[in-house]
């Protein structure tokens, strides 16, 4: 990532669309943000309360798998608070001056969104502590025995941090967030509503059965729902279909190797490796990552969470295990218990 483009920058997750694409489909306010009812309720109350007191919103940490709406929620919060949202990502804040530059340029009560916040380096993290707690930056001036600390006041602001790995966040940083919320995979009804909303914005004529089919196959994730919808749109326009029905969705998504339950080629490769190479497990994460040529963090944060949530995979102290449902989904016979 180019560090110079730190502020007001859109991020792309591992399974994301190119920057810019996502913007057109993002809900702008809480009322348009579908699903995640607990999250909306908690944040809605916090926004209303702080607005009535004329204070900045407390710092918010959002965690959960990629594509579930963390960036979107940061933008929604800024919209609801009537302020601007500056978007950046931890890898873009390598040098102290990157984060100092962002903090001193904030306007009162603005939202600063830092994606992948678990990847902040120690210097950046330590600069953030007094900024979050007391709205000040502590700068070290001079070197060696003549070094002194100077405090620079900054305006009150709200930090919204997002992470796919809440466990990798340091405790001192985690403790400084007043609101910590987990985003969950979406329910089928919510996903259908998300697909129908996106179809409307893309001016597609999508049957309700077709919307349901996309919803079933998107791994509980709005970003994937939007991406699948665009692939369906491609097939519909090449084949000259005005209306999109469930059969067309099925044909288009089969072409892209997305199966009836939403598993894609990477998911099936993981389960197949476990079944063929390790009798279904238990097998360690690093072994699997090496076997697949994937990075273990991607495996743990992008691929595994949905398979775990669907009950196709299980995490045990001795490693990962394919469940009976996982075997059945891949057409493997049930394991005989000795
Ligand atoms: P994350 O930051 O968690 O990786 P994003 O906020 O970038 O995910 O969301 C990805 C896309 O999914 C957004 O561009 C938006 O179109 C869509 N999306 C996310 N959450 C919702 C939601 N609750 N309702 C409707 N669309 C959503």
End-to-end separation in angstroms reads 52 Å
Q: H/E element string?
A: HEHEHEHEEEHEHEHHEHHHHEEH
Low-confidence segments, given as residue ranges, are 1-19
The radius of gyration is 22 Å
Q: Class by helix and strand content? A: alpha/beta
As a percent range, the share of strand residues is 5-15%
The unique ligands bound to this protein are: adenosine-5'-diphosphate
Name the strands of the widest sheet in spatial order. 2-3-6-1-7
Give me the number of helical elements: 13
Write up this protein.
With 338 residues, the protein is an alpha/beta fold. The chain contains 13 helices and eleven strands. The strands form four sheets. Strands 2-3-6-1-7 form a five-stranded parallel beta sheet, covered by helices on one side. The chain has a two-stranded antiparallel ribbon with strand order 4-5. Strands 8-9 form a two-stranded parallel sheet. The radius of gyration is 22 Å and the shape is globular. The structure holds adenosine-5'-diphosphate (ADP). Adenosine-5'-diphosphate binds next to helix 2 and helix 8.
């Amino acid at each position: 990532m180019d560090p110079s483009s730190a502020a007001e920058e859109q991020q792309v997750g591992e399974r994301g669309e190119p920057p810019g694409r996502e913007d057109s489909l993002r809900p702008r306010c809480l009322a348009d943000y579908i699903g995640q009812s607990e999250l909306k309720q908690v944040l809605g109350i916090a926004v209303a309360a702080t607005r009535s007191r004329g204070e900045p919103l407390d710092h918010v940490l959002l965690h959960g798998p990629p594509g579930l709406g963390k960036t979107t929620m940061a933008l929604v919060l800024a919209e609801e608070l009537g302020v601007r949202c500056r978007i950046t990502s931890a890898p873009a804040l390598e040098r102290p001056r990157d984060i100092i530059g962002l903090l001193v340029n904030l306007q009162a009560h603005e939202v600063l969104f830092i994606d992948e916040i678990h990847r902040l380096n120690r210097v950046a993290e330590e600069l953030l502590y007094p900024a979050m707690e007391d709205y000040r930056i502590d700068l070290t001036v001079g070197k060696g025995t003549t070094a002194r600390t100077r405090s620079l006041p900054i305006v009150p602001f709200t930090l919204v941090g997002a992470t796919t790995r809440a466990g990798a966040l340091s405790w001192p940083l985690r403790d400084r967030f007043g609101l910590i919320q987990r985003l969950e995979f979406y329910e089928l009804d919510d996903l259908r509503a998300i697909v129908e909303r996106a179809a409307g914005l893309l001016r597609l004529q999508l049957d309700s059965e077709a919307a349901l089919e996309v919803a079933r196959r998107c791994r509980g994730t709005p970003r994937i729902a939007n991406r699948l919808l665009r692939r369906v749109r491609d097939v519909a326009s090449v084949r000259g279909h005005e209306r999109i029905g469930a059969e067309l969705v099925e044909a288009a998504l089969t072409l892209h190797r997305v199966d009836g339950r939403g598993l894609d080629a990477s998911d099936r490769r993981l389960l197949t490796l476990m079944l063929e190479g390790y009798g279904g497990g238990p097998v360690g994460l690093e072994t699997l990552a090496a076997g697949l040529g994937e990075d273990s963090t991607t495996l743990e944060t992008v691929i595994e969470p949905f398979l775990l949530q669907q009950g196709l995979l299980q995490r045990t102290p001795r490693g990962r295990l394919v469940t009976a449902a996982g075997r059945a989904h891949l057409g493997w016979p049930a394991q005989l218990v000795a």
